[in-house]
Amino acid sequence: xxxxxxxxxxxxxxxxxxxxPPVNALSAAVRGGILECVKQAVAxxxxxxxxxxCAGRTFIAGADIxxxxxxxxxxxxxxxxxxxxxxxxxxxxAIHGTALGGGLEVALACHYRVATKEAKLGLPEVKxxxxxxAGGTQRLPRAVGPELAxxxxxxxxxxxxxxxxRNGLVAEIVEGPASGGVEFARKVVAEGRPLHRLRDDDSKxxxxxxxxxxxxxxxxxITKKSRGLEAPFAAADAVxxxxxxxxxxxxxxxxxxxxKLVASDQSKAQRYAFFxxxxxxxxxxxxxxxxxxxxxxxxxxxxxxxxxxIAMSFANAGVPVTLIETAEEQLKRGMGIMQKNWEATAxxxxxxxxAPAKRMALINGVVGLENVGDADLVIEAVFETMAVKKxxxxxxxxxxxxxxxxxxNTSYLNIDEIAAMTKRPQDVLGMHFFSPANVMxxxxxxxxxxxxxxxxxxxxxxxxxxxxxxxxxxxxDGFVGNRMLAQRGKQAEKLLFExxxxxxxxxxxxxxxxxxxxxxxxxxxxxxxxxxxxxxRGIKSxxxxxxxxxxxxxxxxxxxxxxxxxxxRAPLPDPEVxxxxxxxxxxxxxxxxxxxxxxxxxxxxxxxxxxxANILAEGIAARPSDIDVVxxxxxxxxxxxxxxxxxxxxxxxxxxxxxxxFYAKETNDPSLEPAPLLKQLAEEGKTFASLAAASKAA
Length: 698
Prior knowledge:
Number of helices: 30
Distance between the termini: 38 Å
Strand order of the largest sheet: 12-11-10-13-14-15-16-17
Helix content: 40-55%
Shape: globular
């Protein structure tokens, strides 16, 4: 008998319970246990119906992804599902927590499903670059119809138990999973209900069979944001097989699609990203068992774009916020923007209609720093200048309660200097949110020299509570993301002096999979910010300065590196910019040359990777995967390329080091010389991944 699955009997009902913490994943032992117990229950003449349920906090939450890439262990999931589906006795899945991926596929093979009201059901395989590989794409369309099936499989987001019941995926909402499942099973036996095998029921496919546009329109709507990704389109094709092919043939085609994706570079990168995100929550150098400080209330200083977005993130997670401004007018404006943002989301159906009022009620807007007194975590989100931040932290020391974590939302500045303004540097750290803070998932958590381990653990756990992906980084100018981005910006600018145009550079970067190129991004942020900063520091940047002198500040003035039509954010190449670049180069005695797309790609990406190597060597990031997490969730790096350090390993570090050395010479730019760590790894034929493996082994 399996240790992780057991069979009990309550008179005529057999109860198969999976107990494999923490999430009852479908390991070989769980699969074997379910198969064995179902066979025994079928063979027991006293058992008239079978309930499949799980112990612990959840139903089966998916495949055991530690088995991916390893030789398959029997039994195959499809064999287990056939045993369930072909049982002559009704099998009822009793779901609580989450039924995800393979877990939902198991439930779909059962003849009936019941769920507790808080349960969530979904097929999120697409997020790992895969499609459901055990009949999910064939059974789910038969359970809920192809439109919702496409949304769930291609989008990858779960649905609630209530929505599952409305659409026929769940027969009943029950109180407790095991007791509710047994009660439902008794009804099925008492009423002599026939076995409902989804494989035999095509009734919900008939409309799409008669009018294929029902299906194709649903696919078009959900794949709009899937640029560059393979899995969503393969998953949509697989749902199409349910409409076009007999069940067994559809199942065979689905399996082919799954095996092709599992071996693909994209899925390998997406699975790497999944593990990298989990790894990032583990903080290097913090004593085992360090507990988080309790956080019941948060104070946020500054109700501008960043402060407001951060406040929304906390209110979204149900955490009460004190939002502090210097004057009533700014406070009113900030509160109004948050209200508007939530109302717009509610109007689109993104949140319930009563959510804006509930979330606004969690935010107490006040004037004056003295109002931080009852907060367990204080986040400063004021103007990005050292003088202002130091002043705030100096005052915070008087007002914040002892033991409160004091965080600065800064994207560049030195946290050690900020912490020195207080008598409690152990409580100070950075929490760098990304704009818009209520949308972007990354939070760079900056560990200063004196930050206490429990303060750090508190910042990481609260970031996760508000659905952010935390990455712990060290103190340096720009931390991880902006420090690497600065190297890309430097090369982007140089390429204009050598003959490339903004639209060519941006096209190469977006073709690679980034959401925006550096010049469109500059226009969005506003070119005048950099111009003012350069003037303060006495630095010149001839082309960018010339644009600003001509009043071209970017989107806000309708022209920057590009021109923008009234009311549009779409960047349009502008001949005036080309003329302006030509004039600047002529004045400087330079000649334009043809720059290849390949050179642009290498000069955009390789210097960032070089800087990543320096960041690792200095210990600013603990692991290459932490750098990747920063880029995946803060800068829109394409998930199917796994992050810059992962991608560098796929390109080959020797090639990157050689090309950097070549460009350093060609462009007379010593900053492009390969970093010592990159050089060493390249010479030894190693990868960035080998560093992570070595530190784990140590």
